[in-house]
Every structure is written in structure tokens, then in C-alpha cells.
Design a protein that fits this description.
Blueprint: H1 21-25, E1 35-42, E2 46-54, H2 66-84, E3 89-90, E4 106-107, E5 111-112, E6 117-120, E7 123-124, E8 137-143, E9 150-152, E10 157-160, E11 166-168, E12 171-176, E13 187-197, E14 201-203, E15 210-211, E16 216-219, E17 221-223, E18 228-235, E19 241-243, E20 249-252, E21 258-268, E22 273-283, E23 287-288, E24 300-302, E25 307-310, E26 313-314, E27 321-327, E28 333-335, E29 340-343, E30 349-358, E31 364-374, E32 378-379, E33 387-388, E34 393-396, E35 399-400, E36 407-413, E37 419-422, E38 427-430, E39 436-445, E40 451-461
Parallel strand pairs: 4-13, 5-13, 15-22, 24-31, 33-40
Antiparallel strand pairs: 1-2, 3-7, 6-10, 8-12, 9-10, 11-13, 12-13, 14-17, 16-20, 18-21, 19-20, 21-22, 23-26, 25-29, 27-30, 28-29, 30-31, 32-35, 34-38, 36-39, 37-38, 39-40
Length: 462
């Protein structure tokens, strides 16, 4: 059974009317054995029950004496005062994060820029919820300011993500928001300290790839400086590698090909932390095949003779990109990004350039390519010495430029009787039998097929 009252609120206009106490209490009804509370109706606040009542009979079967009404009303009003006597205050319970009871100003947990932050304020006592603050109190910032990025809800939840480092000391107000029938001073204020530190920054954003069998080293660094602890919180490093928890160094020798994603978390002694995801791709070493260039022989080319060839590599990850990492190719010759060597040398000289192959992970390998470019083949011997009848004669032809070996050929003309020409050595030799003047055309051909021609005159004297 329930207890109902048509009593007006204390202090209301209707309460000034003099109604008989017996008439006022005739609206109360209950079972003989039931218990209920005297309920004071508050506009839009439901009903606050303050005084238990027992033994009231339904329908006014039991007359309530006038002194009972007066006594009950006094007790009801006294109950209102008793409720207000339990002072509203911020909680000093152990689960309130900002509690520092021995200090005039309470310090809340330290936050950091960029890291989500939350604190739930708590209160105790108060007239509408004497047990612990409950849903009948509301919170607000009385003065001062909160750290930028944080806001305080009416339910006391301070939350957000700080955007600026510094120290803030606002006054926070908690109040009982049931109307002032309870107390004119159902609120309290306290000053709190919020320290926001600069957020941690973890670099670099990525780490190098690894190569099976090759020593690996990468270092993660954190700012601001301090004592930090590094840990892999998700995924795993490649087999053979380890993370140093004190300095962020990743080192070792990878042993297994694969892609290894992992997450590193760094924390410091101030409670700050930051996480970043990384990935290390491990592949076999890049191996470059020796270049096979057309237009050269044993590392020797010739001015005007086109060079061409394709550099190839194995291992690594994905397609390769080729570049000249050092030295200079012969003038007129280039190395393409696909590893193609092409062009026609235009300047003689000794050249060495370094070709580099890089895969999609940035893994690299290099090869040195030496190349000598010779000038065009030509005759160094300009004339033949004279010969004598009956005397042994030898004359060797010489060339300059070109690429050895050089082959010789008589194109035309006539040699003296007793003289022969060695096509392999380019030598005239023998004993002339008859005097006279003889003309002969000779062609020299080098290893690259370059030819040079010249007509010689051989005079045989007596």
C-alpha cells in the first residue's frame, strides 16, 4: 500500500491557509499492517519520502487526533533539516583519482598532449542523496579553466584529448540540484590541479627491410628525452631480430624470408605512452649477374661501335630499378632504369661505373662495370723500308686503336718474287729475286670487325 498526502510544500502560498489538521490527514490511507512514507511532491522531481507512517486505516476508519497531525508535521519538517545537515563534499574515497585529502588543492592524474584523458568526479552526502552524491548532484567549472581539449559534463565526467601542455588549476563546483527546500547552501567548491605534459613522439615512421643472412640494425627514438620502455605489443619481429626494451634498438640477423608486421609501444615514467605500427620485409640477397654487353670484347669497346646489353638480378622483392651509383659510363652510353645498357661511345678512354639494382623495399646491390673504349683502328705503319735483291727482308705492319686481335688481308697488288705476307702476323718476309717497285693494298680487321685499308709501296734494289 502507498501513502499519499495533499499537504502543500513548506513555504508555499497554500500552506498559509489554515486548514484543520484532521481534514488534512483524512486523505491518508493504508492497511493496518502496512508501512509507508510521508511523501512531499516536488514539481518535476517526483516524490521525496521522508517520514514512515503505520497503522492508518483506509476510509478514515481510524480517527487521527489533531496532536498526531501536529507531531507528524513537525517531524516531517525536522526531517528536511536533518537531510541538509549531511554536508555535500567531494569524495575522499580511494577510487576517486584526484583524491589528495591532506592537500588544500587536489591533484588529478597527469595527462599528455594527444592522449585521451578522463576522470570521473565523485561527491558524498548532500540533502537529496545522503548516501553518496548519486544522480542528484551536478558539476560545473566555478572559475579558472580546464586544459584545452577537455570538457566537464554535468554528471562529473571530465574527458577529452588535451591539445596543449601546461598546468591548470580550476575550481570545480558540485551542487545538489533539488530545489532549495533542503538547504540554501547545498553546494561546495574545490580547487584541482591538472598537469598536461608534452605528448611522446616516436620516430621513424618506418624501418628498413631485412635481408637473410645480413646484419640488421634500426633504432626507434622518442622525444622528449627521458627514461622509456619499449615493447612489442602485437605481431612479431622477424626470426633472428630482437628489440632492446631500454633503447629501442632493433638488431640481429634475419633468417627467414617473409613479411612481418608488428606494433611497438613506448611508455615513460610519467605515465605517457605512444604506439606505432611497423613492418619488416625480409628477402633473399640481391645477386647481379655479370653484364654481357654486345659491341665489346673482354671489356674493350671502340669509338663508333654501338654497345648494348641487359643487366639482370635475382633475389630481393619485386621488380628492380637500376641506376648509376658511381663512376661514369662512356660518353654516349647510358644505363636505363630497366637495366638496359645502350649507346655508341664517342670518346676513347678507360671507364668504370657502378650499376645499382634496388627492389621495391629499398634493398640494393651493386656491380662495377669497367670498360675501355679504343679509338678507331688505323695503320701506324705508313711506309715500307726498301729491300735488296738476294738479301733477307722482313717488315711488320702495325696498327693503332681498335680491339685486338687484328687480322690481315691482301686486297690487291703484287709482291716481289721471294716475298710473302703473313696474314696472321701482318709481316712481309723473304728474299727478293728481282729489283723493281711493287704496290700492294692491305686491310686490317680488328676483333669488333672494324677495318682499315692502306696501299704500300715496296722498292727492291740491286
Amino acid at each position: 500500500a502507498s501513502c499519499r498526502s495533499s499537504l502543500p510544500e513548506p513555504g508555499s502560498a497554500s500552506s498559509s491557509k489554515r486548514r484543520s489538521s484532521a481534514r488534512a490527514w483524512r486523505s491518508l490511507s493504508a492497511s493496518p499492517s502496512s508501512s509507508c512514507s510521508h511523501c512531499l511532491n516536488k514539481p518535476d522531481r517526483g516524490r521525496t519520502c521522508l517520514l514512515p507512517c503505520r497503522g492508518l486505516e483506509a476510509g478514515g476508519g481510524g480517527r487521527v487526533k489533531r496532536f498526531a497531525l501536529v507531531f507528524a508535521l513537525v517531524v516531517v519538517l525536522a526531517g528536511l533539516v536533518v537531510a541538509a545537515a549531511s554536508a555535500l563534499a567531494f569524495s575522499d574515497a580511494s577510487d576517486f583519482a584526484c583524491k589528495t585529502p591532506n592537500d588544500a588543492v587536489w591533484t588529478c592524474p597527469t595527462g599528455s598532449v594527444g592522449t585521451p584523458y578522463s576522470v570521473q568526479f565523485k561527491a558524498r552526502a548532500g540533502c537529496s542523496d545522503p548516501v553518496g552524491g548519486g544522480p542528484y548532484v551536478k558539476y560545473s567549472v566555478a572559475s579558472g579553466g580546464l586544459p584545452p581539449g577537455l570538457s566537464l559534463s554535468s554528471s562529473g565526467l571530465l574527458s577529452g584529448t588535451p591539445t596543449q601542455a601546461g598546468t591548470w588549476e580550476p575550481w570545480i563546483r558540485v551542487e545538489d540540484y533539488v530545489e532549495n527546500w533542503c538547504s540554501d547552501t547545498a553546494h561546495t567548491e574545490r580547487q584541482f590541479i591538472f598537469n598536461v605534459l608534452t605528448g611522446l613522439d616516436l620516430e621513424p615512421s618506418s624501418v628498413p627491410p631485412g635481408t637473410v643472412g645480413a646484419s640488421y640494425s634500426a633504432t626507434l627514438s622518442v622525444t622528449p628525452a627521458g627514461t622509456h620502455t619499449f615493447a612489442v605489443t602485437a605481431g612479431a619481429l622477424p626470426p633472428g631480430l630482437a628489440l632492446d626494451a631500454s633503447n629501442g634498438a632493433i638488431s640481429g640477423t634475419p633468417t627467414t624470408v617473409g613479411s612481418y608486421p608488428f606494433k611497438v609501444q613506448v611508455s615513460d615514467t610519467d605515465g605517457r605512452s605512444i604506439s606505432r605500427e611497423y613492418n619488416i620485409n625480409v628477402a633473399n640477397p640481391i645477386a647481379i649477374s655479370p653484364p654481357a654487353l654486345q659491341g665489346q670484347r673482354a671489356g674493350r669497346g671502340e669509338v663508333g661501335i654501338a654497345l648494348s646489353g641487359q643487366l639482370t638480378a635475382t633475389g630481393g622483392n619485386g621488380a628492380f630499378t637500376w641506376t648509376v651509383a658511381g663512376g661514369t659510363p662512356p660518353t654516349g652510353v647510358t644505363l636505363g632504369a630497366d637495366g638496359t645498357v645502350s649507346g655508341t661511345p664517342s670518346v676513347a678512354g678507360n671507364y668504370t661505373f657502378t650499376a645499382q639494382a634496388a627492389d621495391v623495399d629499398g634493398r640494393t646491390a651493386t656491380v662495377n662495370i669497367p670498360l675501355t673504349v679504343a679509338s678507331n683502328l688505323s695503320f701506324k705503319t705508313l711506309a715500307l723500308k726498301p729491300a735488296k735483291v738476294g738479301k733477307l727482308y722482313t717488315a711488320k705492319l702495325k696498327t693503332i686503336g681498335g680491339v685486338a686481335p687484328v687480322k690481315w688481308k691482301i686486297l690487291g697488288g703484287k709482291l716481289p718474287r721471294g716475298i710473302r705476307f703473313d696474314k696472321k702476323l701482318g709481316v712481309f718476309a723473304g728474299t727478293p729475286k728481282r729489283e723493281g717497285t711493287y704496290r700492294v693494298s692491305v686491310q686490317a680487321t680488328d676483333a669488333l670487325g672494324v677495318t682499315s685499308k692502306k696501299t704500300f709501296v715496296l722498292v727492291v734494289k740491286t
